Structures are given as C-alpha cells and as structure tokens.
Amino acid sequence: EKQALAKRLEKLAKKYPQLMASVTDLASPDVSKLSSELIRKEARRLLQDGNMAEAVALLREAHNLFPEDVAIHLLLGTAHCHAAQYEEALILLADLKETKANQDEIHLIRGTAYMGAGQLGPARIEMEAVLKIKPDSSAACYNLAQILMRLAPPDVDDAERYYRKSIASGGTRDMGCDQFIVIEPPPPGSNA
After folding, report:
1. pLDDT for residue 132
2. Alpha-carbon gap, residue 159 to 21, rounded angstroms
C-alpha cells in the first residue's frame, strides 16, 4: 500500500513540483501527513491567487489520494464554492461526518453552497447552525444577512443586525450590503 501511495504521490509531484520539493523520502512514514499538508497549503495559495479550476483539480486528486483527510475534503468543498460549483460542493459534503472539531466549518461551507445554489431555506438553517456553535462567526453572520436580504420580502431588520454583528466580529464591510443596510456606529457600550 505504501508503494502504491508513493507512486501516486510521485505522479502528483510531477504535476505540482513545488509541492514535493521538500519531500525527499517518499517511503517515509510521515509522507502522507506531510504531503497532505503541502497539498492543502498549495490549494489555499491557488484559491488566493484566483486559480479556482487548478485548486479544484489539485484537491480532487488529493481527495482520491487521502480520502480520509477531512481537511482536504472541506477545502475541496470550499474550492467548489469559490468556483461557483455549488451542487458539487453539496454532493461532496453530504456524506461528511461531523465531529465536534469541524461541525461549524461543515455547516458554513454547506450553507455557502446552498446559498450559491439559490436554496435560501437550507442555507439559512446551516448558517443558524454555525451561529449556535460559534456565535461570533463573522462569515456566518455576513452570509445570514445576505440570505435575509434575498428573502421575499427582505427581512431588513434582522439582516442589519447580523451584518452589524459580522462587522463587530471582525468581518469587513461590503459595499453591496452598505447600499441596502445603513450601518451607523453602535452606541458606546452596546452589544451591536
């Protein structure tokens, strides 16, 4: 099994030589862990650089190599969302088992995918689940504000509350939201 993994890693290394430059011994017992970390790091760089298709391709290959690696699984879901491949993200995340350590991230990515796919009801449920686990998640607050503004009719009051909370939790302001939601600084001593 180690030989098969080493061959697959070598094939991946030829495609992405920058990943494997620091891996000298493919037979090392730590090669799987190290390779997985390097792949995630490279995938994040590709996403930051806007190379969505390449990030998805790399992570798909990595997911085949490391099917039990939850971090790669989640990053692939994120990459699908960045590439506007929301249905693929939902399919990928459907069978992922939640653990206490990753459940907020799973709900956030799944909610983002539902939102992108235009399924506002499930998206809202997922974002609310994130906020039950991690009440100060600026990403979940921001997404929930977006969802509430897209309802018919929009729930402006709650959207404003969640957008304000997103900013207070370290999120950045969004010009699109600012057009619809007037945010004035909260009064001193308030909980925004």
Report:
1. 96
2. 47
The Cα–Cα gap between 123 and 134 comes to 16
* Model confidence pLDDT, tens digit, residues 143-178: 999 999 999 999 989 999 999 999 999 998 888 777
- Find the length of the chain: 192
Angle at which helix 52-65 crosses helix 31-48, to 10 degrees, equals: 160
Summarize the confidence of residues 100-116 as an average pLDDT. 92
Q: Which residues contact 80 (CB under 8 A, 6 or more apart)?
A: 56, 86, 88, 89, 92, 113
Instruction: Give the contacts of 82 (CB within 8 A, at least 6 positions apart).
Output: 47, 52, 55
Q: Give pLDDT tens digits for 176-187.
A: 777 766 655 555
Tokens of 21: 């430059």
Sign of the alpha-carbon torsion through 153, 137, 77, 80: positive
User: DSSP per residue over 65-123, as a string?
Assistant: H-TT-HHHHHHHHHHHHHTT-HHHHHHHHHTPPP-TTTHHHHHHHHHHHHHHTT-HHHH
